[in-house]
């Protein structure tokens, strides 16, 4: 019961920190995606359904600032949420380094999906974006995501839907 | 029938995933107007109320520091105004002598950016002034460095700004020292281009591109960007396009000015001041 409460508080913290302080926490071009961390932990706990639904909601909220590509964050986050939920049993552990790796990899794959659609009609360098924007943002997101997880001090119990 | 439901239940995870993915893809391919309304609803319901609170807290935290700076600036400006008053009187005397007609004054409404997005590649801003302050759709939005975008939607107390990175954004522009008009627009990756430049052009890298005053929304002389590179347009190789380095770095923008029509400006606007062609000249010099 206490773990459930802590987990809910953790998810709400991620949600509100991202929603309210996104611009304040950005380090120049390096941005933070705590919504993705939220999707990852939902997928780890509740599997593909939890991952997909949280990805859909968080993605659409992020998309409300991007009229040109409204729906793109949602697509990327649904795929990531579903994929992590599907394979979570084979690699998940409560070790911080494992969680950091999961977040880091998720962010990279998320941005690959996002920018491969975003740049599909343009000539801007996709790889330039991945190397100079995604890579540092992924490190930043995984460090802050895991730091927040450590602050709450609980273990993620895997549940099936 | 029961087999069908059993099949659905067994594959519920994949079905939910596919359903959500299809909804997202459908949203992504919606016509512009419908997509806009949907995004606006989510934005108003979920994001803006929270971000307005944070914006206000941030505003009060910086108020004391800002007040000190403003007092200093106020004194400097007071001295400057006295000097300019004299110059204005002198100018009016000269105008009368030369029979010049005075220019219509331009009014600015100072606005704070409440929110500039919470994800990658946002192309709108929410600002804290709306219809009660005189902000109406299609007014230009600027910062001292140059063009930011235009108002696309207004509430009573807040408005949405379409940024120059938005794919539908277009402005008639020209090099500041030449009379070669072209169109500035955004590419799919949010990059700025000057389109439809004839092959025999005088435009060259390093040229400052400013709004041309055609099109009825943006006045003449607002910096849009600097020409970084010229290349042939893909579809029609008979014209060139220039890649522009934007005059304004949108990541650094926290306050903007809405260039308001005199008739709409109300006394509730946070800051209101007159400018004239001298401002355009200042921009040109800048």
How would the blueprint of this fold be written?
The complex is a heterodimer of chains A (161) and B (286).
Chain A: H1 2-25, H2 34-63, H3 72-91, H4 96-118, H5 126-152
Chain B: H1 2-10, H2 12-28, H3 32-61, H4 63-98, E1 106-115, E2 124-127, E3 140-143, E4 146-154, E5 159-163, E6 170-175, E7 182-186, E8 192-198, E9 208-211, E10 223-232, E11 239-246, E12 255-260, E13 272-275, H5 277-285
Antiparallel strand pairs in B: 1-2, 1-12, 1-13, 2-5, 3-4, 3-12, 4-5, 6-7, 6-9, 7-8, 8-11, 9-10, 10-11
Characterise this structure.
The complex is a heterodimer of chains A (161) and B (286). Chain A is 77% helix and 0% strand. With 161 residues, chain A is mostly helical. Chain A is globular. The model of chain A has no long low-confidence stretch (mean pLDDT 86). A six-stranded antiparallel barrel of chain B has the order 1-2-5-4-3-12. Chain B is built from five helices and 13 strands. The longest helix of chain B has 36 residues, at 63-98. At the A-B interface, helix 1, helix 2, helix 3 and helix 4 of A face helix 2 and helix 3 of B.
Largest sheet entry of chain A: none
- The number of helices of chain B is 5
Please list the strands of the largest sheet of chain B in the order they lie side by side.
Answer: 1-2-5-4-3-12
How many angstroms separate the termini of chain A? 18 Å
Strand content of the residues of chain A, in percent? under 5%
Q: How big a fraction of the residues of chain B is strand? A: 25-35%
**Main interface: chain pair and counts:** A-B, 53 and 48 residues
Q: Could you tell me the number of beta strands of chain B?
A: 13
Low-pLDDT windows of residues of chain B:
262-280
Q: Overall pLDDT of chain A, averaged? A: 86
Q: What is the alpha-carbon Rg of chain B in Å?
A: 24 Å
Q: Helix coverage percent of residues of chain A?
A: over 70%
SS-derived structural category of chain A: mainly alpha
Shape of chain B: flat
* Series of H and E elements of chain A: HHHHH
Structural class of the secondary elements of chain B?
alpha+beta
Count of β-strands of chain A: 0
Task: Give the fraction of residues assigned to helices of chain B.
Answer: 25-40%
